[in-house]
Amino acid sequence: NRIVRVTPDGWELEADQRHGEIIAQELKIQDQKGLTTPGVDEPEPEHSEELSGWQLSAYRSLAARANYLSMDRPDIQFAVKELCRSMSKPTQHSWKKLVRVGKYLVFRPRLVLKYSWQNETSEISAYSDANWAGCLSTRKSTSGGCLMIGGHLIKTWSKTQANVALSSAESEFYGTLKTAQESIGLISLARELGQEMKSRLLVDASAALGVAQRLGVGKLRHLQTGALWLQEQELRKVLTLQKVPGSDNRADTMTKNVSREILERHVAGMRGEF
Q1: 104 in Cβ contact with 35 (< 8 Å)
Q2: For 70-98, what is each residue's pLDDT tens digit?
Q3: For residues 51 and 98, is the Cβ–Cβ distance under 8 A?
Q4: Cβ-contact 36, 107 below 8 angstroms
């Protein structure tokens, strides 16, 4: 039940807003004041009671619904990813985070992604970011990314890294690898549709760029496979790597809880309109 519109200025895509309404109704917060951000950094209490009974099943149902909604709502992707990490054993603290997402959807019930008419381009802009040791309990990092063709948003993601990164440079490098893989997937899809494309990886971490652009791996032997693969893609001119200011990195929204101002700026950069 996504909504697709054709307008004189181009196409528009919107998620089914009923998902947000159902989440708010199930949590009985539809008449409460909304919140301006979907998440906030709070450490998990040491002895947070596990959910049980109706609350346990409600949490899993509503988190799954929010996860489906987040495919078309990059503004809630990170917060919802964190909800889904607690699916097996959600706690009262997890419930509190779910209620916050619900209150944000009360405040921001609709997000329209705009695909205005533009000149043809053969370049993918791939924004990459990572939040080193962002999880306060496991110290795992989050990778986030955003693929755009011109002003058109194609894909976003927020993913907890499998390995515990030993430095911010390593964390950012894993995020860059993920973005490179997604870019090559989109290049392959475009080729099947008859269009040759290349990708420009936009990264705000100088250290990650240094690892990717040097020849060989130096002392970073534990990154050998990924580093050499990424260097090969650049040498083959499938990808190019470029520094982007952190304030302009749209993937920032998918890696951490950010302020309302930053959230609105990056959503506007993805051509989203509340």
Answers
A1: yes
A2: 999 999 999 999 999 999 999 999 999 99
A3: no
A4: yes
Q: Are 124 and 148 in contact (CB under 8 A)?
A: yes
Is pLDDT above 70 for 224?
no
With tokens 């009985």, the residue in question is 28
> Distances in Å between the alpha carbon of 63 and those of 30, 52, 102, 137?
17, 15, 10, 20
Our CA angle for 182, 183, 188, nearest 5°, is 100
Main-chain phi, psi angles of 85, to 5 degrees:
-65, -20
Helices (H), the chain: 18-26, 53-70, 77-84, 92-107, 168-192, 206-213, 224-235, 260-269
Token duo for residue 186: 């989109």
- Considering only CA atoms, give the Rg of the chain: 19
- Alpha-carbon distance of 98 to 63, in angstroms, equals 7
CB contact at 8 A, 124 and 199? yes
Q: What is the pLDDT of residues 20-32, one digit of tens each?
A: 999 999 999 999 9
